[in-house]
C-alpha cells in the first residue's frame, strides 16, 4: 500500500458521517465511503452538517462515494487487501445482517496485506463472530461519545467528538502489531477539533458505554421519549437509574468495576437539548434496532454469572417482539392465517 493509506468506511449515519468528515478534514488518508439508501442524495447535494466541533457545513460530499462494497473494492484494485482499514459504522444487527456477511465482500483473512477491521459500533462482544470466522483478523474497537444523528439528510452533531481506539485481543497476532495499527489510525483520525485517544482496556470501555446504550437507548425507544422528556416525565429514578445499576452489577461479575457516580452525568447528558438517541431515531424511521449486541450479549453474561437484571431482560424481550413484528411487516416471513397452538410445533420460516 503506497501513498495515503486507503480507508473504506461503510455506513453514513449520524456517527459515520462525522467520522467521514473528520477523516476528510484531517486529510491524511484516501477515503472511500459506501452508502446505500442515501447514495443519490449524498452524491448530488451532500449532507448538511450542524456540528458543535466543525460548525455549519452546508454540503458535505466525500470525494469517493459508492453504493456498494463490491464497487468500492473494484475501484480500489479489487481483492481483499486494497484498504488498510475497513471501518464499519452501520448498525450492528446480527438478526438481519451479520457483520461477517459484510466483510465477505471486502476482507481476505489470508492476504499478506490484509486490512485491519475497525468496528465503530455500539454493543458488547461484537468482535466474537468475526474472530470466530477470521482467525487472523486484526479487529479494532472505536467507542465514541458524540451525540450525533442523521435526520432528513441533516447531521445534527451536538456532543463533541471523543473517541477511544483500542483492539480486541487476538492470540494469533502480537499485541505490538495490534497496538501499532491503533496508533496509526489515531494519527489518521485526529485533528484539532476532536479528541481521539488510545484505549488500553476495550472491555471496560464497552461496558462503560453500555451504561448509556443499554439503558437510555432502549428506554427512549420503548417510550418514544427523548432524553429530556424522560427526565421531565419521571423516568430518572424509576427506569434509568435502576437499569444502569443492573449494568454495573453485570459488568462487575465480568471483572469490570464501573463508577456509580457516572449515573448522574449520563442521566443529565446533553443538557439544554431534547436529544433523541440513535435507537429511538431508528424506531421512528421504521428501521431495525440493534438490541441483541446492546442488551442480549450483556444478558448472556448476566445469565452465566447468575446476576439478576429484570429491567434489562424485560426491555430485551419487548424489543425482540417489536423487531419480529417489523420483520413481518417488511415481508421477511409470513404467519399462517389461523394462529398455531403450542402443540403444532410451528417455527417461523424466513424468506431471506
Automatic annotation (TrEMBL):
Transmembrane segments: none
Ketopantoate reductase N-terminal domain sequence ranges: 7-169
Record-linked Pfam families: ApbA, ApbA_C
InterPro entries for the chain: 6-PGluconate_DH-like_C_sf, 6PGD_dom2, KPA_reductase, KPR-Related, KPR_N, NAD(P)-bd_dom_sf
Any one of the GO CC terms: cytoplasm
Superkingdom, taxonomy of origin: Eukaryota
Residues in Ketopantoate reductase C-terminal domain copies: 201-320
Protein name stated in the entry: 2-dehydropantoate 2-reductase
Species, as recorded: [Candida] arabinofermentans NRRL YB-2248
Amino acid at each position: 500500500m503506497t501513498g495515503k493509506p486507503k480507508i473504506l468506511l461503510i455506513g453514513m449515519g449520524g456517527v459515520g458521517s462525522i467520522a467521514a468528515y473528520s477523516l476528510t478534514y484531517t486529510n491524511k488518508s484516501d477515503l472511500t465511503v459506501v452508502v446505500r439508501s442515501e447514495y443519490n442524495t449524498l452524491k448530488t447535494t451532500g449532507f448538511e452538517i450542524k456540528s458543535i466541533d466543525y460548525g455549519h457545513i452546508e454540503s458535505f460530499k466525500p470525494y469517493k462515494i459508492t453504493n456498494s462494497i463490491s464497487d468500492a473494492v473494484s475501484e480500489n484494485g479489487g481483492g481483499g487487501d486494497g484498504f488498510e482499514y475497513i471501518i464499519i459504522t452501520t448498525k450492528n444487527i446480527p438478526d438481519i445482517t451479520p457483520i461477517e456477511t459484510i466483510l465477505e465482500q471486502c476482507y481476505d483473512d489470508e492476504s499478506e496485506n490484509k486490512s485491519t477491521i475497525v468496528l465503530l459500533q455500539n454493543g458488547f462482544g461484537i468482535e466474537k463472530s468475526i474472530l470466530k470466522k477470521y482467525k487472523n483478523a486484526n479487529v479494532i474497537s472505536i467507542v465514541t461519545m458524540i451525540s450525533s444523528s442523521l435526520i432528513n439528510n441533516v447531521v445534527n452533531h451536538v456532543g463533541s467528538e471523543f473517541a477511544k481506539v483500542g483492539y480486541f485481543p487476538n492470540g494469533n497476532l502480537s499485541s505490538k502489531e495490534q497496538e501499532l495499527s491503533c496508533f496509526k489510525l489515531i494519527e489518521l483520525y485526529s485533528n484539532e477539533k476532536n479528541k481521539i485517544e488510545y484505549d488500553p482496556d476495550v472491555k471496560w470501555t464497552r461496558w462503560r458505554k453500555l451504561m448509556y446504550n443499554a439503558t437510555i437507548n432502549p428506554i427512549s425507544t420503548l417510550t418514544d421519549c427523548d432524553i429530556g422528556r424522560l427526565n421531565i416525565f419521571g423516568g430518572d429514578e424509576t427506569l434509568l437509574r435502576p437499569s444502569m445499576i443492573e449494568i454495573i452489577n453485570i459488568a462487575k461479575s465480568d471483572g469490570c468495576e464501573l463508577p456509580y457516580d457516572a449515573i448522574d452525568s449520563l442521566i443529565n447528558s446533553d443538557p439544554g437539548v431534547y436529544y433523541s438517541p440513535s435507537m429511538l431515531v431508528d424506531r421512528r424511521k421504521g428501521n431495525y434496532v440493534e438490541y441483541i449486541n446492546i442488551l442480549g450479549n450483556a444478558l448472556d453474561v448476566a445469565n452465566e454469572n447468575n446476576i439478576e437484571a429484570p429491567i434489562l431482560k424485560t426491555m430485551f424481550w419487548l424489543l425482540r417482539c417489536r423487531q419480529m413484528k417489523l420483520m413481518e411487516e417488511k415481508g421477511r416471513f409470513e404467519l399462517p392465517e389461523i394462529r398455531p397452538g403450542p402443540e403444532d410445533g410451528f417455527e417461523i420460516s424466513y424468506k431471506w
